[in-house]
Design a protein that fits this description.
single chain, 2 strands, about 65% helix
Length: about 400
């Protein structure tokens, strides 16, 4: 036997080790899968909306089964259950623990399933914390992939069945049923993240332009004002954090200011019509009927426990009507305790961003937090399983100390 053959042939009873790059590739794929499953679990299902005849129980079951699968994937990645301490998930865990306390009341036993789902969701997020702060921004890449898949499904639905996709004149999901506000959220967050990446030179101009044009068209077709306004505010805040260090940001802001002035003078009538969405002035004043729900919700009788801890997790509705406000939904479900914790989450994220050095991670986090802050006034947000909770988780992962790799 030659010396070369002796080196190549492994000894009996000893398995050859996989190359480090192969192991890293497997870990990345599992994290991508786990995050996409979590994102899919946040999607709502409305029977009869999709052009595919999916029965309601089947569609809801498909969405709900992705969460335990995601938990299994996360546990397979983090078998030692190593957790990275962070304030953000501690605050989110407080909300989950408070909902458990609410279910102990006999009249709130119907919220057990939603509470268990939230706890399971938060556990999955904790199990992924060892991969926070990577230099390759792995969690952000997972988020972009999930957003891309959601938007691709919307485009497919529009091409295959335009009638289902544009019911009422607003673009919605026709392949997998999604509301126009959800579609607008995905499109706006995708645009904002890609623009910030372009600000810092982390994405090619041609690629960024294609994404912004396609996602921008989707956003316009949804006729969703909240997402558009939150996108503008988020990009402005993120851009201001980079305006001193990035010349292209200064040039873009100057060009955008000039273009905005021209558009405001020439297309003001079209913009006003788009914003009105065919509504009367009364519809604009009451925020498309939202305030008609908010008043009775605040005036509803409550005992001391319900005022402090709420009624438990629900479908985000009051008397059968959607609440459409993170703060009022928090008050209804988690009481004043939930409202205070929500405020603490946003204040902590903004404070943590302020003390970060100028750069890509800080700008991305500021965009996501600013977007969530603006949208929280007219959208149900991050006190339950939702895409907003995942947005803020990505922002939190960008604000931790950077490391080259995750769990070893």
């Amino acid at each position: 036997m030659t010396p070369t053959a002796t080196i190549i042939r492994p000894r009996r009873g000893i398995r050859p080790t996989a190359p480090p790059l192969t192991a890293e590739r497997v870990v990345r794929r599992r994290i991508y899968l786990t995050w996409c499953l979590l994102y899919f679990n946040t999607l709502t299902f409305f029977p009869g909306v999709s052009f595919i005849p999916i029965p309601g129980p089947v569609g809801k079951g498909i969405a709900q089964v992705t969460l335990p699968i995601a938990l299994v994937c996360a546990l397979s990645l983090n078998r030692k259950v190593l957790l990275r301490p962070n304030v953000f998930l501690c605050l989110v865990s407080l909300i989950a623990l408070e909902t458990i306390l609410t279910t102990l009341q006999p009249e709130h036993v119907g919220t057990v399933f939603r509470t268990a789902r939230l706890v399971e969701f938060v556990v999955c997020l904790w199990l992924l914390t060892p991969w926070w702060g990577r230099r390759d921004l792995l969690l952000l890449r997972c988020h972009l992939l999930a957003l891309s898949l959601a938007l691709v499904s919307v485009v497919i639905g529009l091409l295959v069945s335009p009638g289902h996709a544009r019911v009422g004149g607003r673009l919605a999901g026709a392949l997998w049923p999604m509301e126009p506000t959800q579609v607008a959220h995905y499109a706006a967050v995708m645009i904002g993240l890609v623009v910030v990446l372009w600000f810092c030179g982390n994405i090619r101009t041609r690629t960024a332009a294609v994404v912004v044009v396609v996602a921008g068209a989707i956003l316009i077709l949804t006729h969703t004002r909240t997402a558009l306004f939150a996108l503008i505010v988020g990009v402005l805040v993120a851009g201001m954090s980079l305006v001193v260090a990035k010349p292209r940001v200064r040039k873009l802001f100057a060009a955008a200011g000039a273009i905005t002035a021209v558009v405001a003078f020439t297309l003001s009538a079209f913009i006003a019509t788009w914003l009105e969405r065919g509504q009367s002035s009364q519809g604009l004043e009451n925020l498309t009927g939202r305030t008609e729900v908010w008043g009775p919700l605040l005036a509803a009788p409550r005992d001391k426990f319900q005022e402090i801890f709420g009624f438990g997790l629900s479908a985000g509705s009051f008397n059968g009507l959607p609440i459409d406000s993170n703060w009022l939904a928090s008050y209804e479900q988690e009481g004043l305790f939930g409202v205070v914790v929500c405020a603490m989450i946003l204040l902590f994220m903004l404070g943590a961003s302020y003390f970060q050095p100028r750069g890509l991670q800080r700008a991305l986090a500021l965009f996501l937090v600013s977007y969530a802050l603006v949208a929280s006034f007219t959208e149900v947000g991050f006190t339950d399983v939702s895409p907003y909770l995942l947005d803020l988780t990505v922002a939190a992962s960008l604000l931790v100390p950077t490391s080259s790799a995750g769990l070893q």
